[in-house]
Amino acid sequence: MMPKIISSNAPEVEFRARPVKGVPLYIKEETIVSMTDHADTGYCENKEVLGLLIGHILKDDEGMYVRVTGAATSGLEADEVSVRFSKETIEGLFDSMDKCEGDMVVGWYHSHLGIGCYLSDVDIRTHAGIFGDEIGFAIVIDPSDSTLAAFSCKDSSPQKVPLIVLA
Ligand SMILES: [Zn+2]
């Protein structure tokens, strides 16, 4: 069984105006650093890496938005694409997460080695497997040229979204 993502329509979603209009994703700087460090480490070993984004969903007049406060990597890495994106791998990540109060899985990240930042068909299926129709963001990092991009993915159609890094 894939872990169930808590519904973003849950009544406990806090109503609070987002810091910047039109931006749905806010990430702590230290989380960006930990993701890019993870991707860099993998790159040195010629491996792609994978992790989950932990944080909170909030809402305002524009709709839902997400604040990412941490990343769960748990040292889970594999060098074969089929292994890395298996349900077992992602279930393992969920299992290894500390159950922090109020924190939930709001996205996932992985690296691409020298092929740029986009969501492949496999990535789109992985995203749909984790989030279904609920809010969730996919971050792709290419450590070969230090690029990073964030995507939402509705109806199997990835869309690049702006993100803001919070100190
Ligand atoms: Zn990918």
Please outline what is shown here.
This protein is of the alpha/beta class and 167 residues long.
Secondary-structure element pattern, one letter each: EEHEEHHEHEEEE
Task: Return residue spans where pLDDT drops below 50 for at least 5 consecutive residues.
Answer: none
- CA-based gyration radius: 15 Å
| CATH fold-level label | Cytidine Deaminase, domain 2
Span between termini: 37 Å
Mean of residue pLDDT values: 84
Helical run tally: 4
Topology diagram in text:
Layout: E1 14-15, E2 25-28, H1 29-44, E3 50-60, E4 63-72, H2 81-84, H3 87-96, E5 104-111, H4 121-131, E6 137-142, E7 147-154, E8 157-161, E9 163-166
Parallel strand pairs: 1-3, 2-4, 2-9, 5-6
Antiparallel strand pairs: 3-4, 3-5, 6-7, 7-8
Bound molecules: zinc ion.
